[in-house]
Predict the structure.
Amino acid sequence: MPMKPLEEASTIPKAWYFDAAFAERERERIFTRTWQCAGRVDQLPKPGDYITTDIAGMPVVVLRNQQGELRAFHNVCRHRAGSPARGTGNASFLRCHYHGWTYDLDGNLKNAPEMDGTLDFKLCDYGLTAIKVAAWGPLVFVNLDPKAKPLEAWLGDIPTRVAPYKLDTLRFADHVEYEIGCNWKLYIDNFLEGYHVPWAHPGLNQVLDYRTYTVEPHDNYVLQYGPLKEQGDASNPLIAFKRGAEAHKGLKGEAALGSAYYWIFPNFMWNLSPDVAQSNVVLPLGPERCRVIFDFFYYGDVSPEVRKQNIAYSDEIQREDIDICETVQRNLHSPAYEAGRFCAKRENGVYAFQSMLRRWLDG
């Protein structure tokens, strides 16, 4: 059922944040059909490099074939469902650890020991099942849906809009994960509005110009950007970002604002600034838990002190958000709450997300 206009609408029912059957419906209708971040390009620099991961509960292997092309497959042997690849590494072929069935880096079955007595068995009929894969900037994405539109089409105008940030030049530096006691959607809800900043993020509020904070919804993404105040604590990393914007040649338009936050349905975010970028992925771990993954990227070499400072400042904000999200998750079980109303001035991003959610679940 489509949502009413923002000014009239209520938020999604509270049961959507903790019902196990609903979580499985989301997995089937959303996470198996949308582009999901599977890793980083720097993890796959040369032919034979591979990584393994889970996408919507499905085991996946991503690799570079002998021609240096990205390929992705369900990491499931066609014999009796063993795993052709484990962990990360470099190999000239993939061999299942169960019975030794061996595949080349294009997924073709090349050897199946002692199958010569099996009638009508042909190696060519039992290759690995391919998955759509594509790179964007420093990241690799996959889509389990064979009918999905290409990543480029899914992203629409976003690559053009973020071009001033030069994503292809970003270099990976740090990886941080949080396991949070809340539904993944609750984390996204919180990300998509600045309404809570004056109350929940005192450090951020010191430097962010809340009056001009802008939330811009689109068909499958939301852009938030907040110019920084002209004056502020010089030790605050966000002030350093602003100074970086003034000094960083080639950054124009949105990049000169100091920060831009892109959320792409359902669970991927780019937190972009002139000197540092964060990719942010939110993975459901069950109806009431999620894992939030941050990768930090820079445009060149940075000192350990700068990296440590940026991680610490990000962590401060995350800890504040985690407290909010875990509190709300507990409170959703109260009989005093069923659904809420949107702040029409400040929560159009949350409204856009919940509208997309309904469309995908109904589609």
The chain is about 25% helix and 25% strand. The CA atoms of residues 77 and 343 lie 50 Å apart. Confidence is low (pLDDT under 50) at residues 238-251.
